Amino acid sequence: MSAEPPVPETRVLAIASHIWDIFEGLKQSYLDNFDMMLSGYVPGAAAVQAVGRIAEELRNRKMANPGDFFWVLDPVMGDNGKLYVADDVAPAYKKLLSHADLILPNQFEAELLSGVKIENMETLERAIQVLHEQFQVPHIVITSVSLSHPNHPPSSLSVIGSSRTSRGQARTFKIVFPSIDCYFSGTGDMFGALMVVRMREAVTNAPDAATLLQRRAWLSDDSVDAIDLPLARAAEKVLASMHEVLTKTCDGLEVQMQAAEATLDRHGVTGDAERAKALHLLKSGAAELRLPRNVNSLRSPTVSFHAVKMQE
C-alpha cells in the first residue's frame, strides 16, 4: 500500500479493517510505543479514517508530553490534475488535517485540501495560509511545484515549506532544484521517509531543542525566520539526498534497459503486446530507486540547494 502498483495485476486489497487489525496485533505484542508516525497511500476513505484512529490513539497516550508524538501525513490522492483514489478520500483527509503535525501534499493535493486553485506563487501561498489557518496544520511542505518564476532557472522544480506562527500565520520558504528527465518509482515514499528522519534531526540540533521537543508539533518561536526553521533545514537535507540518489538511478537506467532488451531478444519475446508488457515491467523494476548502493547519499549528502524566502 505504499505506492500505486506499477504492475497491471494485483492480488491483495488492503481495507480499513486490515489496517486496524495490524495495529491491534502490534498492541497485543507490546510493539506500539511509537514517537513518530508516517502515513502515505491508503486506498479509500474508510482506510484513511483507520489511519487517523491509530494516530489519535498514539497521540492521546502522549498528552502529558505533547512533543513525544509527531505525525507526518502524506495525503496521497493524485497528481497533475488527476485523482487516483476514490472521490471520498479528500474529504476524509480534510477531517484529519488538524491532527497531523506535518503534511506533504504535492501541488494538486494542496489544491484539493485547501480549495484554492494554485496558478502562481501568490495563490500557492494563499493555499498554505488556508491550511495553516482553517485546518490548523503546523507544518506544510508542498512537493514538486512546477510554477514558473523569473528567478527560477529553466527545467527546475521547487519545494515550498512553511511552519505557522502562534497566530496561525505562514512562514514560507522555497528550495529550487533542477528537475531530472527520467522515470522513477518510489520518490514520494523516499521523500516522506527522509522527512521523518531529518525533521527529528533538525529539531534536535536547533538552539532551542530542549524547548521544542516538549511542544506539540515542535513549533519554533515566532521570532525564528522562515529560512532558519528546522523544517527548512530538514527539507534541504532531504532534497540533497533525493537529488544524489535520483541522479545515480537515472544514470544506470539506460544501461539496465539495454540489458533488458537483450534479455527479451535471447528469450524470443517478439510479439508486440507481450514485449510491451515485459518492457513495462522491466522499466518499472529498473526505475526503482537505488538506495542500498547509495547509502552514503542518505547518510551524508552534500547540501547544494538552500532555502530562500519566497520573494527571492
Automatic annotation (TrEMBL):
This is pyridoxal kinase. It comes from Sporothrix brasiliensis 5110. InterPro entries: PM/HMP-P_kinase-1, PyrdxlKinase, Ribokinase-like. Pfam families: Phos_pyr_kin. One of its GO terms (molecular function) is pyridoxal kinase activity. One of its GO terms (biological process) is pyridoxal 5'-phosphate salvage. Keywords: ATP-binding, Kinase, Nucleotide-binding, Transferase. Belongs to the pyridoxine kinase family. It is an enzyme of class 2 (transferase). Its EC number is 2.7.1.35. GO terms for cellular component: cytosol. The keyword Transferase applies. The keyword Aminoacyl-tRNA synthetase does not apply. Gene3D superfamilies: 3.40.1190.20. Residues 69-150 form the Pyridoxamine kinase/Phosphomethylpyrimidine kinase domain.
